[in-house]
Structures are given as C-alpha cells and as structure tokens.
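Quarterly update from the structural biology core.
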Amino acid sequence: MITSIVEMPDQAKVWVYQANRPFSDSERILIEKNLEAFCGQWAAHGKQLTSTYSIEKNQFIILAVDESGHQASGCSIDSSVHFIQQIEQATGLSLLDKSQVAFETEEGIIIKPFNKLKEAVTTGEIKPDTIVFNNAIQNAAEWKSSWAIPANQSWLKRFFSVN
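Predicted structure, tokenized:
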C-alpha cells in the first residue's frame, strides 16, 4: 500500500465516495481502520493491488489503485463497492448516492440534489468561486487537479451564464 494518494501515479484509478453528512469521530476511526485493512488485502485474481485511501473534508472516502503492476478486475472493483456498502451498514451513512452534489461554503460541506443546483446558483447559495466537488473523476491526475474546483470552472458554469 502506498501511504498517500499524492504519491500515486497520475494514471492510477480513483473512486470518490461522498457521504451524506460529516463523519463522527467514532465513525472516522472505524472507517480508517477498515480502509487500512481493506487496502492491505485488496487483490485482483489473487494478486495484491497497490492501493491507498484518503478521507477528505471529513466527508469523502477516496480509494486509489495503481494499475501499473496489476489492474483492478471487475471482481476486485465489486469487492470495493461491497466494502463501501459494509461501511454504510455499520455507520448509517449514505456513500453511494450519485444524485447529490457537494460544495463547500463557510458553514462547511453542503449537499444538494442535482435538480436543486440551478436554484442554488440563482439564489446565490452557490457563487462562482464556491468550491464544488467533482466525484466523477477517473484517475489521480484528475483528483489532484480538478476534484475540488470553483463552480464557475466546473460543469455548473452554464448556470452562471444565464444570470
């Protein structure tokens, strides 16, 4: 296991799991302990995957795999989703809902459904410089450069042009 996603090569595969709320202290401890164990044994076709994780903003789980040695197989990816489902069951968190978008305000991380984002821009809740999290990133290079970006540099920019 590599100790940091920053150390991962740019082409490393990355998955982002966004929680519906911040982790409690006990949840964070449980999640970190389980992530450490999962990454330590994560394998594809019996071969250890070079992987790591990060907890960001106390509300996101980032998993990364360096596929230069061994590629993550369908079964190994399924095992990571099953692992995330186990965390959901143990904590009551929602981590697999892709219909929600997170952005950061002075009050912290705010989660909105896709169909409420235009309204949030119109009312000024999301401003051009509000940080929006792009959880659809595919690799470490994208995570490093465009996971957290100002709204007016994201796909939300189309809502600012109509104001």
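Residues 100-160 form one domain.
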